[in-house]
Every structure is written in structure tokens, then in C-alpha cells.
């Protein structure tokens, strides 16, 4: 009952209801924008956008669903080279819609493998021989080992980075005490409900239209040299989990400051500082780049974190950036809760003592007595 009361009190404020509605509307708008931005080109060369375009694009790319073997890579490379030799300048939209669109992600993967440390160069695809295309994974593994030596600052880090190559080969299928406890619990519960309500809306709208066919596609199809061997489905769940940890951290820090400073207006500025202002500070203080790779804003920037081979070392222990910030800030958000509890407990106790003093003074007839006497 007390928990229900705390939640009711929280959402009885008009500003809280407005913010909640705004967050849910933002989730709907972002989902619609993500789905509507999909672009599909039909066999006649006409471009389409919108919900149906996303479904048709997914179906077109599923023509190549299955294990991405060397023979299949050679087939894609051969087709692209033939089209390039046929058209001197830009490929017509009709040709793109008939052939290239269906395997464009595989094409990008091949180019990404062949240009690990250089700018995007599409011409490498046209110079690739048939035998090299069939042995692309051998080239891929060699580049992985070279990058391990380049990015590893110590032998332990080099070994850690080099050992990820085994996982990179893949298929490409697409009383007051009780009241205080309930106040803290209500805050964390509200953060959880609001976060997953927004994510649920995005999940239903986005995946309901675009489908789940790409969930088993490895992330390396887009970022060949990422040190995180996972599928797009796992990557999606990772971003959701990191976002939830960020929400828990924001809720615990905000409640702690509100309880200590007795000011909700100051407390609500903290999440903005942690997740919006911190990236700009990090770019300004580039000399402390390593430190800013472990700040809380990285939890909501997992897309960029997964692209970079950032590893850290303590003694002989080598660890990656994303698991580190996930574990670190989940523990921090939990460790802050006892201090939040203590802050609200003392705040409630102070209010009660002041109330008792006023009532006592009133009974003694001294409620309106002057503070000084002459």
C-alpha cells in the first residue's frame, strides 16, 4: 500500500505526467521515423519509403540468407564487377533494384574487410580476383592479427585482441523506515517502467514492421573488425540493457541529490550533465581520452563503443570497454541506494522533529514569542 501511495504521489504531479507523456510520444515518433526512413528500389528503378518499403527491403535481402561462404562471396564480387564493367558511370536505379540492393550489405562487408585502416574505397572490390574473394576469410584473419599487434599496448592485450578472431567467422542469415524504503523502491520502479514502456513502443512499432529476419545476422557484417562477436539481435539487447543501466544510474543519482540538497530542480539537471554534457567535455579535454572512455555517457553511446577496439588492463587482467562500463555503473547505481535511503530517512526525521517542536511551542503558549527579549 505504501509503495502504491508513493507511485501515486509521484505521478499525481502535473509536470511528471507531462514528462511521461512526452517521453512516450518521443518513443513513438522515433520509431515511426526509423521505420519510415527505410528506402527500397524496385525493379523499375522507382524508390519507395515508408512501412512497406522496410518489409520489401528485408524480403529482398533475404534472398542471400544462409551461410556466407567463400563461394557466395565470390558470386557477389563477380556480379558487382560485371555490373561495374557494364556501366561506365553511375549504375542505373533499375540495375540497383534488380541485383545490387539484395547483396549491398555483403558488398559493404567485403570492402570493410579489405580496408581496415584506410578510408572507404569501393575500388578494392573491382580489383579483387576470384581466388582472393573465395579466400576472403584468410585475408580477414590476417588483418585481425595485425590489428591485434597494432592496438595492443601490452603482450596481454595483443593476445586478448588476437584471440577474438576465432569468434569472428560466421553465417550471414538475416513506519518511516518502511516508508523510506518504498520511496526509494518507487523511484527505481518508476525508472524501470518508464524506460521499458518507451522501449516496448519502439520494439513493437519498429520490429513489427521491419521484422526479425536480421536478428541472427552477425554484427561483423557491418563492422568487420569490431572486437564484439555478436549478432544484431544480441547487439539490440545489449543496447537495451546499457540504456536500462543508464536509467538506473540516473534515477539513483537524482534521488540522492534530491534527498541531500532538498531540491528536485537541481537533481533533475544531473542526468542531463552525465549523458548530454559529458561527451562535449570529453572532446574538449582530449588529453584525458582514456578516462572519458569510461564515463557514464558511454552507456548511451554503445554504437560507437562497439566499433572501437578499446581494451583496458589491470595487472594481467585485460577487459573490454562495454562490459566494464556495464558492470561498473550497475554496481554504482546499487551502491548509491543505501545513501539515498539514508538521505530520505534523515530528511523525514528532520521534518518530524521540526513538526514536534512547533506543536510543543504552541502548547506552551510560546508559539508567537519574539526571538529576543529586552
Topology:
Layout: H1 2-11, H2 14-36, E1 39-41, E2 47-49, H3 51-61, H4 70-86, H5 93-114, H6 123-127, H7 130-134, H8 136-151, H9 155-162, H10 176-210, H11 232-261, H12 264-267, H13 269-284, H14 289-292, H15 302-307, E3 311-314, E4 317-320, H16 321-363
Antiparallel strand pairs: 1-2, 3-4
Helix pairs in contact: 1-10, 2-10, 4-5, 8-9, 10-11, 10-16, 11-13, 11-16
Quick structural overview:
The protein has helices at about 1-10, 15-35, 50-60, 70-85, 95-115, 125, 130-135, 135-150, 155-160, 175-210, 230-260, 265, 270-285, 290, 300-305, 320-365, and strands at about 40, 45-50, 310-315, 315-320. The chain has about 375 residues and is mainly alpha-helical.
Structural description of this entry:
- This protein is mostly helical.
- 68% of the residues lie in helices and 4% in strands.
- It is built from 16 helices and 4 strands.
- Strand 1 and strand 2 form a beta hairpin.
- Helix 8 packs antiparallel against helix 9 and helix 11 crosses helix 13.
- The radius of gyration is 28 Å and the shape is globular.
- The protein starts with a helix and ends in an 11-residue tail after the last helix.
Amino acid at each position: 500500500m505504501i509503495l502504491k501511495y508513493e507511485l501515486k504521489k509521484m505521478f499525481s504531479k502535473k509536470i511528471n505526467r507531462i514528462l511521461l507523456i512526452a517521453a512516450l510520444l518521443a518513443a513513438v515518433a522515433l520509431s515511426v521515423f526509423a521505420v519510415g526512413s527505410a528506402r527500397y528500389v524496385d525493379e523499375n528503378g522507382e524508390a519507395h519509403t515508408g512501412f512497406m518499403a522496410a518489409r520489401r527491403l528485408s524480403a529482398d535481402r533475404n534472398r542471400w540468407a544462409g551461410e556466407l561462404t567463400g563461394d557466395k562471396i565470390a558470386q557477389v564480387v563477380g556480379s558487382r564487377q560485371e555490373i561495374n564493367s557494364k556501366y561506365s558511370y553511375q549504375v542505373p536505379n533499375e540495375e540497383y533494384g534488380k541485383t545490387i540492393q539484395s547483396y549491398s550489405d555483403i558488398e559493404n562487408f567485403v570492402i570493410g574487410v579489405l580496408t581496415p585502416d584506410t578510408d572507404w574505397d569501393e575500388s578494392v572490390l573491382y580489383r579483387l580476383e576470384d581466388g582472393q574473394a573465395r579466400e576472403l576469410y584468410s585475408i580477414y584473419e590476417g588483418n585481425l592479427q595485425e590489428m591485434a599487434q597494432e592496438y595492443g599496448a601490452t603482450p596481454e592485450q595483443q593476445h586478448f585482441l588476437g584471440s577474438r578472431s576465432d569468434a569472428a567467422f560466421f553465417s550471414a542469415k538475416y513506519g518511516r523506515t518502511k516508508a523510506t524504503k518504498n520511496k526509494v523502491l518507487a523511484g527505481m520502479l518508476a525508472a524501470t517502467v518508464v524506460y521499458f514502456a518507451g522501449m516496448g513502443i519502439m520494439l513493437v512499432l519498429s520490429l513489427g514492421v521491419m521484422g526479425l529476419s536480421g536478428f541472427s545476422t552477425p554484427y561483423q557484417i557491418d563492422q568487420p573488425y569490431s572486437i564484439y562477436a555478436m549478432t544484431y539481435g544480441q547487439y539490440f539487447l545489449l543496447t537495451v540493457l546499457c540504456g536500462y543501466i543508464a536509467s538506473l544510474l540516473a534515477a539513483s543519482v537524482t534521488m540522492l541529490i534530491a534527498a541531500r540538497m532538498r531540491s528536485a530542480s537541481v537533481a533533475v539537471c544531473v542526468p542531463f550533465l552525465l549523458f548530454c554534457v559529458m561527451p562535449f567535455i570529453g572532446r574538449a579535454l582530449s588529453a584525458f581520452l582514456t578516462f572519458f572512455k569510461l564515463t557514464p555517457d558511454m552507456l548511451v553511446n554503445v554504437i560507437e563503443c562497439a566499433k572501437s577496439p578499446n581494451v583496458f588492463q589491470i595487472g594481467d587482467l585485460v577487459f573490454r570497454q562495454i562490459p566494464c562500463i556495464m558492470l561498473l555503473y550497475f554496481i554504482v547505481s546499487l551502491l548509491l541506494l543505501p545513501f539515498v535511503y539514508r538521505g530520505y530517512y534523515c530528511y523525514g526525521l528532520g521534518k518530524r522533529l521540526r513538526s514536534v517542536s512547533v506543536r510543543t511551542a504552541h502548547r506552551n503558549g510560546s508559539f508567537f514569542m519574539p526571538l529576543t527579549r529586552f
